[in-house]
Amino acid sequence: MPQLENEEEERGMSGFVAKPIDEMRSIHHGAVKLAGAELEVESFGLQVLDLPAGFVDYPEHDHAEDGQEEVYLILRGSAELEIDGVPLSAPTGEMIRVDALARRRLVPGPEGVRVLAIGCSPSVPYERPEDFRLEGTG
């Protein structure tokens, strides 16, 4: 991949933004990379989750309130997703779409997991949650 010459070019001056995942700002002790904010995505949510083996604090949740459906892509490692109480094995390369009303919980496999999480509501314009914004941006 070509190296970007300066921060202005990286921040989208050429009609694109490119940044290595491991250089993205993160929250929750590095577990959630702010990919959407770093890449200046405005139309959908985008995060990279890096969860170590044995991590049990990924919250069970749904998106009934905001109507957001999500797609998870397992980039590295493996996980088990529990969706409405049904366990689903998720190896590297697996893509899973989860409806807004479905309760979901992610449990990393024995080597941990890196997950690309994409989400948006089909009927409401996307608004990045406060926690997932870069400092100093709106």
Labels describing this entry:
2 helices, 7 strands, mainly beta, 8% helix, globular, Jelly Rolls, 138 residues
The proportion of residues forming helix, as a percent range, comes to: under 10%
Radius of gyration: 16 Å
Q: How many β-strand stretches?
A: 7
* Biggest sheet features: 7 strands, antiparallel
Separation of the first and last Cα atoms: 30 Å
Overall CATH architecture: Sandwich
3D structure, described in words:
The structure is a single chain. The chain has 138 residues and is mostly beta strands. It has a single domain (19-122), classed as Sandwich (Jelly Rolls). It is built from two helices and seven strands; from the N terminus they run αββαβββββ. Strands 1, 2, 3, 4, 5, 6 and 7 form a seven-stranded antiparallel sheet that branches.
Summarize the structure.
The chain is mostly beta strands and 138 residues long.
Layout of strands and helices, then pairs:
Elements: H1 7-13, E1 26-27, E2 32-33, H2 35-38, E3 45-51, E4 69-83, E5 86-90, E6 95-98, E7 104-120
Antiparallel strand pairs: 1-2, 2-3, 3-7, 4-5, 4-6, 4-7
